[in-house]
Amino acid sequence: MTHLSTLRHRALAFRSLHVPGRPLVLPNAWDAAGARVIEDAGAAAIATTSAGLAWALGAADGDTLDRDRALAAVAAIAGAVGVPVSADIESGYAKDPAEVADTIRAVLAAGVVGVNIEDALYGEEAGAGPLRPAAEQADRIAAAREAADARGVPLFVNARIDTFLRGAGGVDLTLERAAAFLAAGADGIFVPGAVDPETVRLLADGVDGPLNVMAGPGAPPVADLAELGVARVSVGSGIAQAAHALVRRAARELLGAGTYDTLADGIEYGELNALLGR
């Protein structure tokens, strides 16, 4: 099977997993080892976390990592697993729609069949407001859609809307932006920061496409989110943050008390080595 035909097959499989009321659950990975562990745990697909990936490469999250380094890491993840992979590509690692299209072509070359593209602004651009104007963001989504379609791959474009995460608006503005992004070619809508059940229900009912929410401590369980009509649940940088908290606890224990209790629940060496050796 050629690279493109494999991508088409995986992209169609990934699309089919987005079912309102029976959500795709995505524990987010940031390296090949974690992706393999998540796949072995039974995940139907892998999603990357841009924050976790950036931290692993020694960079901060928020459009600071360059495209080549980011996508090299994403390619390693996609190459380590047999399930579909969706990549969080922040704002597209791009200044304009043409560069977004370049990123999408590189994403497909990396073996990825889905992307998250966010509408938040960072750095100097954030002076214009917390979010990119909807029309500009729609142009970037359209460029992503066209680049994937030109390759014949039904890439799942998940439009991330940061109204709640950035305190930039509520349900009405989110639905307005969602409609514009879906019209531009997005396949799903991702609204991190919205976990209140009534808010989630309004979003699920109002978005004309699969709704993705970001869960974590304090959020409703997956079963409850399913009842609200959610089609995709991910945890963003949550697992990466928990892993780095473990590193800190273990380091402080070792350097302080000189003991090793924090290390007691690690995956057994032989098991992990065998998993990565497949």
From TrEMBL:
An example molecular function term from Gene Ontology annotations: methyltransferase activity
GO biological process: methylation
Keywords: Methyltransferase, Transferase
A Pfam family that the UniProt record links to this protein: PEP_mutase
Regions crossing the membrane: none
UniProt-listed InterPro entries: ICL/PEPM, Pyrv/PenolPyrv_kinase-like_dom, Pyrv_kinase-like_dom_sf
Domain of life: Bacteria
Name recorded for this polypeptide: 3-methyl-2-oxobutanoate hydroxymethyltransferase
Organism: Streptomyces resistomycificus
